[in-house]
Amino acid sequence: MLIRRKIQSEVEKTLFKGKIVVIYGPRQVGKTTLVKLIQENQKQIATAYFNCDEADVRDALTGKTSTELKLFFGDNKLVILDEAQRVRNIGLTLKLMVDNYPQMQIIATGSSSFDLSNEIVEPLTGRKIEFYLYPFSLAELKEIYSEIEIDRILENRMIFGMYPGVVFESDFAKIKTLKTLAKSYVYKDVLEYRNIKNHEVLEKLLRALALQVGNEVSYGELASLIEINKQTVADYIQILEKAFIVFRLPSFSSNLRNEIKSNRKIYFYDNGIRNALINNLNPLDLRQDAGALWENFMIGERVKSNNNTDGDANMYFWRTLQKQEIDLIEERGGKLAGFEFKWKSRPGKVPVAFSRAYPDAKVEMISRENYKKFAGLRQ
């Protein structure tokens, strides 16, 4: 079943403007489907698709002059390089093309932003437009489901996540697919980076992070738990971020002495991957972590919604030394908004310290009764 991705129209608007288009995202998230749909919409011109996982394609793009590259691409006006991070010095290759043949539109996709972005930042300064493709969002599922149907599948999505290969499968098939995806995350992309060999340490770190969703994360405590040094923890988490497995929320602080200023919370881009890592795909009524799952799911949906609508927002959490806290703070256009996440709707109070320090900031509780606008399902 085909679902049009929200960023497709935005990508298409940027074509043929003299810039390389780069689409980042993890494996199996639908990048190939997206670029082939874009290619299909350009029937009036000559186009070509190249899979850089193919050895002969990599050879044709590595260490070549602009003339040699032009001979390889031929008279195509749109060229798609899928999994472009597999090409050594891809940034230089792309720079040669955009500088010498600006009339040719190149779209490059990369599943490992730590490879592709590091190699293209300097060569393509001012020459690229970047997009990010994540697992399906609820707003994208609205293309095929009504809001009532989305309510019905909400718990299932909190458990099994939003990967395209998971969304439409039976529960039995989803479990197998998720476990394969989780291993692909750890072993295929992350372990190849800088020749990381110790997969057991990485697995322990991922499980520890999965069990701490919604809580502040201490690198020192993680280091002690996993028996590695603190810097290694920090390095591994940075790699996991660049591989689109987790993302950090820093603490928000500006006015109060007792605000926590340097801690962070860590969330997973996909609930299903998180649950597969801890081997818990049980229904909500058999779990103790429904609140944490809801918080992770909603914050992940907000990240996707902001990305898909070009919403420019800085995201934080807020907490004081006295443990007054707000799950999510958004700073948008100089204005603050706070959000608390409760799976079971119940009255909550805004911390007095926050209200006094930020009297103009509105704080809203997001539950399964009112999540649709927050998640981008409604305007």
List low-pLDDT spans. none
Strand content: 15-25%
The best one-word shape is globular
Derived structural class: alpha/beta
Q: Work out the number of β strands.
A: 12
Number of helical segments with 4 or more residues: 17
Q: Kindly provide the radius of gyration, computed on alpha-carbon positions and rounded to a whole number of angstroms.
A: 22 Å
Largest sheet: 5 strands, parallel
Helix content: 40-55%
Q: How far apart are the termini?
A: 25 Å
Order of strands, widest sheet = 2-3-4-1-5
What order do the helices and strands follow?
HEHEHHEHEHEHHHHHEHHEEHHEEEHEH
Number of domains: 2
Average of pLDDT? 91
Layout of strands and helices, then pairs:
Blueprint: H1 8-13, E1 20-24, H2 31-40, E2 47-51, H3 55-61, H4 66-73, E3 78-82, H5 90-100, E4 105-110, H6 113-120, E5 128-132, H7 138-141, H8 147-160, H9 164-167, H10 171-190, H11 199-211, E6 216-217, H12 219-226, H13 230-242, E7 246-250, E8 264-268, H14 271-277, H15 290-308, E9 314-319, E10 325-332, E11 335-341, H16 352-357, E12 362-366, H17 371-374
Parallel strand pairs: 1-4, 1-5, 2-3, 3-4, 11-12
Antiparallel strand pairs: 6-8, 7-8, 9-10, 10-11
Helix pairs in contact: 8-14, 10-14, 12-13
